User: What shape does this take?
Amino acid sequence: MNLKIAVLPGDGIGPEISVQGVAVMNAACEKFGHKVSYEYAICGADAIEKTGDPFPEETFRICMNADAVLFSAVGDPKFDNDPTASVRPEQGLLAMRKRLGLFANIRPIETFDCLLHKSPLKDDIVRGADFICIRELTGGMYFGEKYRDNDKAFDTNIYTRPEIERILQVAYDYAMHRRRHVTVIDKANILDTSRLWRKVAKEFADKYPEATTDYMFVDYASMRIIQEPGFFDVIVTENTFGDILTDEASCISGSMGLLPSASTGEHTPVFEPVHGSWPQAKGLNIANPLAQILSVAMLFEYFNLTEEGALIRKAVKASLDANVRTPEIQTEGEPFYGTREVGAWIADYIRNA
Ligand code: IPM
Ligand code: MN
Assistant: This one.
């Protein structure tokens, strides 16, 4: 296969983990005989400094031209501490989602047995947890009409039936290849948007009698996710609830540095770590590249290149088992490995497999 990849390293630790993602991509393409080419583009704080725009037109063009985007992270404390800043790096991420029509954000939550003790939850609660959150990504309060003056502000939470239907379709497509269990999370006891979600979801449930569908209020769901994560298979929810619940769920696996994600929809799909730009660690060679590397596995799987994805996952697991780990997940008494060293170990493993 020929793959044209847009690489958006972004800010903070982004560029360092991006290099490792590309190295692993190259190793897998070599191994399986794929031709891959890359076009690099700027975004986030880096792009604001260079062009004034966190998602410049040229970056959009490069993304549209590619088969997939390998994205790393955006964000810089310079902007966080300045509430008057008129442009922020995060707006680049929102612009990318909106302009590429990426309405589905897929965040798998898996555990690695050798890292269970790193989770703040008890081993027997998290062992075997394996679910995916399907978060609606281009609607709701993030993009609804907004207003702010000195004394009043609002963000409109708005959803239309087609927006709800297409994200539910993604959820059921995943569920049918998994344990056929969909949990629709909403606040239908209070919100009209949630009532519409639930109505449309009930219609889907009727269309998929072979799947189990249940409905949960978001407050209860947030408790259930940490009390009994093993209950869930496929979660589907609106943009804001999904943002909050996926950060919560990321605790289950022991480190945010392990979680990849895919955003798919109308145009080029984007593959990126769930974690942010961790500016304090920039250039220190300590950031965990695994979430980025697992995003590459998701990228292959998106194109039905399942063997490639499986080999990357196997290599990641082997690196953990061999204690080739960055500081935040290393076993006591074992030496720390850097971002580069972990990436190189995994790329070698793939080449020699
Ligand atoms: C995420 C992030 C983003 C979001 C921010 C950086 C805009 O928190 O991808 O979850 O809120 O969606
Ligand atoms: Mn978030």
User: Anything to note?
Assistant: The chain has a mean pLDDT of 96. The first helix runs from residue 14 to 32. The CA atoms of residues 44 and 213 lie 38 Å apart. The longest strand covers residues 2-10.
